[in-house]
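Attaching the record inline, Q. Sequence:
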Amino acid sequence: MTEKKKFDPNHPCLFCKPKSKEVIAETEHAVLVTDTYPVSLGHCLIVPKRHIATYFECTEEENRDFRILILKAKEYIDKNHSPDAYNIGNNNGLESGQSVFHLHIHIIPRYKGDVENPKGGVRWVLPKNSQYKYPKDKQ
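Structure, as predicted:
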């Protein structure tokens, strides 16, 4: 009996060679691609061409290209899906939830009503700390 090999997105790295049909735009140092497992309509990823694990390893040139591609992603998503808002972020390290250890920045379009209460946004990575209340004097 042969043992079925378990899928591992890191061996080989899922992001080192993006599929051409997924590429929306690219710069010298990074690529904008559609997300294979989108959390919302239009969800995209920005991936550096250089294999690095976290944002803290990127160069100034890569970071400039990330910004260029974030704006291209917004233009592409706005044109094709007309979202109401965006979340932009990435996970850095296992305990942050990173599962593919090639830096990738999520551009997640948000739509009115996609969650019951969007207050807190990215703070929901720690649900018990996601909600906050303003002091009475600031309400």
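Residues 20-113 form a domain with the HIT family, subunit A fold (CATH 3.30.428.10). The longest strand covers residues 105-110.

More tomorrow.
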